[in-house]
UniProtKB/TrEMBL annotation:
InterPro entries named among the record's database cross-references: Homeodomain-like_sf, HTH_AraC, HTH_AraC-typ_CS
Chain's gene name: rhaR_41
The organism's place on the tree of life at top rank: Bacteria
Taxon lineage: Bacteria, Bacillati, Bacillota, Bacilli, Bacillales
Name of the protein this chain belongs to: HTH-type transcriptional activator RhaR
Keyword Translocase annotated: no
Species, as recorded: Paenibacillus auburnensis
Transmembrane intervals: 12-34, 311-331
SUPFAM superfamilies: Homeodomain-like
Amino acid sequence: MKKWSSAFTSLAISYISIVLVIVLLLCSVFYIYFSSHYKEELRSRNQLILKNTAGTIEASVLQRVQQIYLEVSLKQTATLRLLAGASFQSNLSKVSSLQDMLQAEVASNSDIIQAVHLYSPGQQVMLSSLYGLKYNADQETGAAFWMDWINGMDKSPLNSLWTEARWVPEDISSSVPGGNGSHLITYAHSYPFQSSGADSDLIIAIDVKESAIRAIMQNMMPPQYQSTFISGPSGSMMASSDQDSTAHEAEYAPSIARALTSPDDTGSFSENINDTSYVISYQTLPSAGWKIFSAAPASLFYERWSVVQQLILGICLFALLLGIGLSGILAKANYSPIKRLLGTIRDFTGSAPEQAMNEFKVIDSAFIRLNDKVSSLEDTLQASTPHIKQNLILNLLQNSTASEPMAVDQEFLGISLEHTHFCCLLLNTREAYTHMSSTHIQAAMARITSQLEEIRLPGTRIIAEELPDKRIIGIVCAREASGALVEQISQLMVSEGRQQFQMEVQLSQGRWVSAMADLHISYTEAQTLMKYAYFLPETVILKDRSLLERESNLDEIPQPALLKFKDKLQARKLDEIAAALEQLITPMREDRFPADYCHFILANTVFVYSDYLKSIRYKHPVHGHMDLYNEYIALSNILHFREWLLHSITAFISETEKRNSDRALSTIETAKQYIESHLSEDLSLDAVSSKVFISPKYLSKLFKEELGVTYTDYITGRRMERAKLLIANNNMSIDQIACTVGYGTTAYFIKRFKEMYGCTPGNYLRTVNEVQPLQAETSF
């Protein structure tokens, strides 16, 4: 084989060519990008830093200040309204309490705020965490330090404002010049919340330390960004990263004006300041409407340009060398499979390929011969068609078929391309397995599927297949979606199922879909509808789409209805047990509860019954300990469940009544009557057993065996039932009710009541009071 005509040489040359082209493009892109957009890096980075700084100021200062306003307005709502009225002077103790709260709020947020003030425009009274209570606040000493926000709110149609930064001395009443103080920005907000400043009953003002904002800017902005400051809507400087906030105010005034007139909330632009090129970036603080600015010299980027050029050249050289090396490795790696394939072909054919022949031509010749051999396997595949068909249908229903071979799948299934709409019909035949042998069931399944596929309707094709879950799926393929067509085929499937299985069957209808790839959607819908066949056994064809809405319903059966069955079971009154069971079953059949939730409730009911039988040590005289759960899951529908459960409970009650002696029943009844008549007295086991003339131990055993509850639980239950009646009558206090039902302390009575009913007596009384008017309205 010639060296230069081999596949390895072709691969190596092609890879190296690709590497050269990529490296040239890489050099060109790098050079064009960095030469044309050299300022973008500085602007983007500066904008990102500025955005993070603005976000930190927004979250750490501005939003915290607004949160402080909400805390003040919500904590002392009643006192705030009192301060806004003329009667506050008669409630100075509450005003003092309000000032303490303001001082506590300032103390907990001392890192950002100086003071909190409350001003009543109607009374001209101000309550301050720092200055105390001031009458005629607009004429007081130091009024100049708060008249800016008072006058601003008095004329404002909005409900809040931020003042400009101002110098406030520590001692506002001192006339001596100089002294310590701080720059403050005040946030004022009306009270109530939605009122405008001019219409507010009260103004809540919070003095914010300018130093808190400055500290954030100093911490987050790099030192090379020489000036960072915040400007208000009027152009005045609110805060700066420098101590002297006015030093550069005149220099940056044109830049500030340009940014303030911009409609964008964020941006950057180049500006010459004192013959030096700067990049000015700005970001809007939405809470206050301020803009934060930063100025960075453009020369910061030029210094790195030569370094970037060298870096680009180094990257390109490294990419070229790496590409050439990888080209050799890839060529060798891709040639290895070809070499192995040639060895395999030589092993199968038993002859070596010609030396002058290219490897690809050798492979092409081998595949031609292989194609001839594959054609001989078609007869074998024909025998496997039923199994392949079943797997293909299962893949379609489970959405595990790739989209590309869909046309081949339709041809294999005998579906014409004119069939553009598909619908799944699911026939439930699982009940047949309980009374038919497996041989008869398989024969019946085969007859149904074959007869369904033989149905010929204009423009329609039906594909039927047995599913692993003992059901039959019918796929209707039609030219257009037709409800009448689905109904006709559904009736045919039900009729055929009755004839073959000699029993009632149920069928569910999925929706029409316009592509075979979406057939799983129709199948899933049919499966979901079939879940409700258990609860609607009288419905032969399940097609009500409202049943699908039940799957997303989160409602639950009321807890009292669930507990009622347990209570009536312990009482062993069959009529009441049947009524309680009907109260569970009827909502499952008629209301909007999901099928899985209903099955959970039914299983829980079976477990309650089973646990009760275990608690009283009941053993069936013939079957011994019964496996109730397995009996339950073998039932085909909810009507059979009701019949089975009532029959089991009836047999249990009958059997237990036989084993109970007259003396035991009489003793229990006497004890229950005595307990009912003396709920407020001593009902200890010793006291009651002496009244019925038996030992305490035997009385406790009778309660456990005959009633299924302990003696103590029975006493507690009766006392709580009496307490519920007394609470519902609403004629006695909680203390009186606790005493009436035999509890020495009200606190213990409330505790036991909450443990049993999940709420306190007071909450239960409010619930009763809310329900009674609603019932009265319903009755009308």
